[in-house]
Amino acid sequence: MAPSLQITLFSLLFIFTITQAQPSFRPSALVLPVKKNASTLQYVTTIHQRTPLVSENLLVDLGNRYMWVDCETNYVSSTYRPVRCETSQCTMSNPDTCSDCFNRPRPGCNNFTCGVFLENSVNNIAMIGEVAQDVVSVRSTDGSSSGRVVSVPHFIFSCAPSYLRRNLSSGAVGVAGLGRNKIGLPSQFASAFSFKRKFAMCLSGSRSSNGVIIFGNDPYKFLPGIIVSDKTLTYTPLLTNPESTSASSHGEPSVEYFIGVKSIKINSKIVPIDTSLLSITNGNGGTKISTIDPYTVLENSIYKAVLKAFIKESAARNITRVASFAPFGACFSTDNILSTRVGPSVPSIDLVLQSESVVWTITGSNSMVYVNDNVVCLGVVKRGSNPRTSIVIGAHQLEDNLVQFDLASSRVGFSGTLLGRQTTCANFNLTSSA
Ligand SMILES: *[C@@H]1O[C@H](CO)[C@@H](O)[C@H](O)[C@H]1NC(C)=O
Ligand SMILES: *[C@@H]1O[C@H](CO)[C@@H](O)[C@H](O)[C@H]1NC(C)=O
Ligand SMILES: *[C@@H]1O[C@H](CO)[C@@H](O)[C@H](O)[C@H]1NC(C)=O
Ligand SMILES: *[C@@H]1O[C@H](CO)[C@@H](O)[C@H](O)[C@H]1NC(C)=O
Ligand SMILES: *[C@@H]1O[C@H](CO)[C@@H](O)[C@H](O)[C@H]1NC(C)=O
Question: What pTM was computed for the model?
Answer without folding.
Answer: 0.93
